[in-house]
Amino acid sequence: MNEKTVDLHVLMCVCGGIAAYKAVEVLRLLQKAGCEVRVASTQDGLRFVGSATWEGLVHRPTPTSLYGWAESSIPHIYLSEWADAVLVVPATANTLAKMATGIADDLVSSTLLAVPSEKPMLVAPAMNVHMWRSAATQQNVETLKARGVRVVMPVEGHLACDAIGEGKLAAVEDIAGAVLEALGSREDADSSRALVGRTVLVTAGPTHEAIDPVRYIANRSSGKMGYAIAEQAARRGAKVVLVSGPTMLDVPEGVRRVDVVSAAEMYDAAVAAFDEADIAICAAAVADYTPAKPADHKLKKAYEHLDMLELVETRDILAALGSLKEAGGKRRYVVGFAAETDDLIANAFKKLEHKGCDLVVANDVSRTDSGFGSDTNHVSLLSASGVEELPTMTKTEVAARLLDAIERSLFIAS
Ligand code: PMT
Fold first, then answer.
1. pLDDT value at position 411?
2. Which residues span the domain enclosing 16?
3. What is the dihedral of CA 143, 149, 153, 154, to 10 degrees?
4. Which residue positions in the chain have pLDDT lower than 50?
5. I want to staple 263 with a disulfide (CB 3.0 to 4.6 A). Which of 46, 207, 361, 412 is the partner?
């Protein structure tokens, strides 16, 4: 976890779930990291952890209702203005639903509605697996994410209700780390503007290598990781060119997409766009081999056999961009991905060196919650300054953390 002392205000909203006791530990971690923490609890939250506990830890009376707080007669406005970041932990299905729909019928929901949109807001959900997977909760979570709320995703495990599955509160260190990260990126506001006006080239998705007019060689890349990077970079003010293989995804807002099919087409499009680029991020799963002589007619099963399928190596786009990064007297920042099932870090370091990258995202693709097709990813960021392993998080969150790291490097270099 980030050890930096931040001395900033964190408002913790505690809801009524068995995981509320872990909120105590999150509070202690944030205090140890130098944050001033205040607590607002729902009435149900108080059934799990009482106000005496919060007051003992926070050293001041803790409001638990919209009425009767000595410090302010309008506690929801006071707290929403006081906070630099707001964390809801544990976030119950009920509170997520209230946040998504704007219901303000108690201290916590009124405070959450009153928080200005530019302040970091985080939710750490915890609930029964079926409540978590329900269409209503999933839709509410998506709505909140789309509004910029950071979701510290629950993990799989043995739940208090005896079910086994997703819905367990994330590790307290990950929750506190996410808050510090959110505060840190706000604190480093100057460096977080490093992408404004820069041109970012992103490759995403699979490539399709034609065998004949109807068959091709492909892989399981959905494009989600690369599209999340493109979307986040555009939101940070970058001009984004997304060179994309075939996917089912919509073009993110503010992004120019160049559609390609094969590795050769992706190579040409990426090299052409690289001239203008300041940063290139290669998240595509490019085929390493392609049929040497794709047939111009549909191959017949009866007399044409697979052993005639001679494959030749494709050109490596990332390595080409790495070798061109100082072309034209301009210094570009190049990021590669390393999709690995074993020896993740060692293999990723080889790619950092051999492909001329400034940073490599080592992507563990041996897990079901990470890599190809999934909504979450488990990665480590590797550069000359070391390795940072990130917890499993959504691809949008991975994209944000990757861009934070790039912004910090650009800011330091500028
Ligand atoms: O698309 P999703 O379903 O969201 O899945 C995301 C992902 C798993 C595809 C993504 O996170 C990822 O790991 N992308 C890299 C996949 C890959 O092909 O890795 P690699 O280790 O084989 O290649 C290393 C790097 O070289 C990559 O940056 C790749 O884009 C690049 N490369 C590889 C071959 C080639 N001919 N040209 C390249 O540019």
1. 61
2. 9-190
3. -80
4. 1-6, 186-187, 189-190
5. 207
Predicted local distance difference test score (pLDDT) of residue 300: 80
Instruction: Give the list of residues 6+ apart from residue 214 with CB closer than 8 angstroms, or none.
Output: 298
Nearest residue by C-alpha to atom 16 in ligand 1: 285
Q: Residue 275 is part of a domain; what is its CATH number?
A: 3.40.50.10300
174-189 per-position pLDDT tens digit: 898 888 888 875 445 4
Q: For residue 389, give both structure tokens.
A: 């392993």
User: Is 316 found in the same domain as 208?
Assistant: yes
Within-domain flag for 3: no
- Predicted model pTM: 0.61
Ligand 1 atom with least separation from CA of 203:
30
| pLDDT of res. 6 | 41
Same domain, yes or no: 178 and 199: no
Q: Are 320 and 404 part of one and the same domain?
A: yes
pLDDT of residue 412: 54
Give me the pLDDT at residue 189, please: 46
Q: Has residue 4 been placed in a domain?
A: no
Q: Which of 281, 318, 378, 402 to mutate to test the pocket of ligand 1 (most atoms within 8 A of CB)?
A: 318
Tell me the C-alpha distance between 190 and 22, whole Å.
Answer: 34
Same domain, 267 and 329: yes
- The tally of domains found in the chain comes to 2
Q: Give 191's contacts (C-beta < 8 A, 6+ positions apart).
A: 407, 408, 410, 411, 412
- Ligand 1 binding pocket includes 318 (Cβ within 6 Å): yes
Is 161 among the residues known to form the active site? yes
Q: Whose CA is nearest to atom 23 of ligand 1?
A: 338
pLDDT score at 286: 98
Same domain, 159 and 210: no
Q: Which of 190, 220, 240 is the last residue of a domain?
A: 190
- DSSP strand E in 205-250: where? 209-210, 216-217, 239-244
Asked if the structure places residue 260 within a domain, the reply is yes
Say if ligand 1 is within 6 A of residue 351 CB. Answer: yes
Tell me which amino acid residue 54 is. Answer: W
Same domain, 93 and 202: no
Say if residue 56 is exposed, middle or buried (CB neighbours under 10 Å; 0-12, 13-18, 19+): exposed
Spacing, Cα 274 to ligand 1 middle (Å): 17
